Amino acid sequence: MKIIVAIKQVPESGAPFKIDGSGRWIEETDLNYNLNESDAYALEQALQLREQHDGEVVALSAGPDRVQSVLRDALAKGADRALHIRCDDRSGRDALGTARLLAAAIRPESPDLVLAGLQSDDVGHGQTGVLLAALLGMPHASLILQVEKTEAGLSVKRELEEGWLQMIELPMPAVLAIQSGGNKLRYATLMGIKRAKTKELRVVESGELGVDLASGLVLDHVSAIRKQKSTQFLPGTPAQAAASLVEKLQFEARVL
Amino acid sequence: MTPLFGTLTEPDSFSLAEKLIFVALAAASVCLFWLRFRKVLAIILAARLDPGFKLFPLATRLKEFAWEVLFQAKVIRQRPLPGLAHALVFWAFLVFALVTLNHCCVGLGVGFLDPSSGLGRFYFAVAALFAAACALGIAALFVRRFALRPVWLGEKLSYESGVIAALIFVLMITYLGAFLVAPASAGARILWWLHTLALLGFLPLIPHTKHLHLVLSPVSVFLSRGSFSSIPPLAGDDDFGLVAGTDLTRLTALQAFSCVECGRCTEHCPAANTGKVLNPKEIILGLRGYLNESGPASPDPLLGRFIPPEAPFQCTTCGACEFQCPVGVEHLPLLIGLRRGAVNTGSWEDEAGGKLFTTLERTGNPLGGSAAERDKFLQRLRLPIFDGSQEYCLWLGCMGAYDPEGREIIADLTRILDHLGTSYGVLRKERCSGDSARRLGNDLLFQQLAEVNLETLAQAGAKKLLSICPHCVRTIQEDWKEFGNPPAIEHHSEFLARHADRLPRQQNDEKIVYHDPCYLGRYRDIYDEPRELVSLAGTLAEAPRSRERSFCCGAGGGLAFLGEETGERISHRRAEELAATGANTVAAACPFCNTMLRDALAAGSAPTTQLLDIAQLVARGLPEKI
Question: Domain spanning B363-498 has what CATH number?
């Protein structure tokens, strides 16, 4: 079973950030980067499938040179080889452009399964996986928590709203967009990183893939969310205050 | 003139037949000893060399050897009565070296120490005093083992120990008896032969029993790794810690065979005392079993038949075992080595442990706090950023930056620093010192954290660090050395005690019991400084187990993050002990102890006992800000 996992490097979540001079992106100089969270689960799913059914896991990422660090981490966690599409991170490229780049790199590999994270933690389009399926002409399913290989193809568990789950069967090759939290992530190990040193990390220039990156999307500006704080004091005895708190949580905040 | 004391009576001469029998028996005894000892020696020498081991400087080794071996200081200090009994036996053995040599020479007709000469008379008299003391000592130890039966010696009675004790007793009594018999009498001859038989019977019993410590433990003590919990560097690309027999080093093997099975390690182990699988003595004996059966060239995993796989991960790395061990066994490099073997190869699967590592990988701190949260805390306390102009770089640590209680400690410490007029600043970015990763044996993660931090500190130009966390202090000062030159760091108790004369003395008689954190006490030898600070705030009370013998809070070695314990909670055991002193307040000096004991006190029999860090205690006496 040959599995390609498309992964993305994103700024560390929870880092304080500033909007850059152009107003269209954030200052990148002080940022730490990490593997996108749902992509980490996609990688974990791929590694588990390979451990059960043998085959190969190829980690794929598009971006500037710094993305090689997440590819190396993927190799250390157990991916067999890595493919880096070298390109400027955001030269007006949108999710479709990224999907085109990834699809062009995936096609010659003819994988049995392509996994991507559900959405990125930075821009959060949530489209790359779905677009990949369309470009590759493969069936797809998204919001996937667990994947099992069956005689006929795949059996996957989808997360629906409000705790509902859906089981789907689909043939291979297929593209799956993986939701966070379906599996336990493995930690990187010293042995993994030592083994990774001898593994292949191939670099492809985005220009060589002959992909039209023209975007139909124009990024106007980015801005920070204005936080509104509204504090309410609930008067009365503790019992009265608790009762009105429950009421507010039930009917205003709707969390109960 | 008759001398005040008689002297030793030796048989006047031996027949040829007697001499031949003696030589044959002696040869058999020595051969049997050697045949058995050779196997042990071969196993030790077949193990690989210890990476990073340095023999020099010798001065510290000699000092430790004199203190622990010759003076028996540790043996006596940590278990005074049995320790003294042991020391009497040991010192007598030293004195008997010459007596025994002469005894054997007499059997060959070439005795060199004449009992009637001045020197002989003196030496044999001195030896007689030691012999009497030794007979008393060994009898006491015999009674202890077979009548009092301390639980630490194990459930099974060691009959070979009884035999050995009897032989030693016979050796001493036959020696003393020779002062009372007439020269050239049959009695003298019988005593000589009894002494000889006891001696020759004793020798072959040494190599395959715990009495091997007679030979090996002085070597173990002399060749110790040199510092407390010394974690050796990994050697080359195929070293992941202790996975199989091939990973065992000579020191580890030497120590495994040196164990005297006294059980001091287990007596003081917080895990073994609260119903966990881990029993440090059984780990060492398990290792010995592995070496005897599989040997140091074996590819079989170390965790399994001889050492339960979960045992090393129940260790809080409090170091009581290593501190207590009288024969130089270093438990921490072994336990952490076994963890390294399991974690570095990915074979350790533990839900909470895996989550801790992935959280550290992603966020750089074990609590999963974000950089933005830390920033907010910095702003809320208006903490100045370290820019190289301040005297101290205040290292917040994960607990100081994210834990609500840790933040309170930082807040109070900065109030004290302001009061003292000491300039300080904090780093914009900090990652976990890597303590948990290091102790849990995740070398990759530890290296990444150490390197990023070393670079941050170098860029900031920090020369002197101040920390509220003994774990950060130890890890930064000692463990980071593997990857660079860490700046000097000290614990706030050391800093504050140095300025104690400028800190307010509070007028009250509040009884405050101080809990020694393992990483400040046993790891750093800081015992008096925090007590001095507690005394500023109230009346210092001592816990039954304090200072070097302090009992762990249960958080160390990454265990704070590993979730529910099996058996009784270590923190509850300690909290009950602290509360039982009747103190109103427990003083802590470590944010991990703080959080563990706070919860345990609240859940225990004295929930009103409050818990404060030493900085909080000191800060109580500061004038209110206007």
Answer: 3.40.50
Q: Which amino acid is at B467?
A: S
Name the pTM for this structure: 0.91
The structural architecture, per CATH, of the domain B245-344 is Orthogonal Bundle (1.10)
CB neighbour list of residue A222: distance below 8 Å, 6 or more residues apart: A19, A23, A24, A25, A26
Domain that holds residue A28: 2-209
The reply to whether domains B245-344 and B504-619 share a CATH topology is no
Hey, is B612 helix, strand or coil? Answer: strand
CATH number (domain holding residue A34): 3.40.50.620
- Determine contact: A194 vs chain B, CB below 8 A: yes
Which positions in chain B have a beta carbon within 8 angstroms of at least one beta carbon in chain A? Answer: 234, 237, 240, 343-346, 351, 354-355, 357-358, 361-364, 369-373, 375, 442-445
Whether residue A216 lies inside any domain: the answer is: no
Flag whether pLDDT at B158 surpasses 80.
yes
- The answer to whether A15 contacts B343, with C-beta atoms less than 8 Å apart, is no
Q: What's the residue count for chain B?
A: 626
| A18 lies within 8 A of chain B by CB | no
- pLDDT digits 0-9 by tens, A160-191: 988 899 999 999 999 999 999 999 999 999 99
- CA nearest B328: which of B218, B242, B248? B218
The full set of domain ranges for chain B reads 16-48+77-214, 245-344, 363-498, 504-619
Predicted confidence (pLDDT) per residue in B96-119, tens digit = 999 999 999 999 999 999 999 999
Chain A residues closer than 8 Å to B358 by CB = 40, 185-187
Q: Say yes or no: A250 and A185 in one domain.
A: no
Confidence check on the interface: ipTM exceeds 0.90, yes or no? no
Long-range contacts of residues B69-73, Cβ cutoff 8 Å, at least 24 apart: B69/B217, B69/B218, B69/B221, B69/B222
- By the 10 Å C-beta count (0-12 exposed, 13-18 middle, 19+ buried), A9 is classed as buried
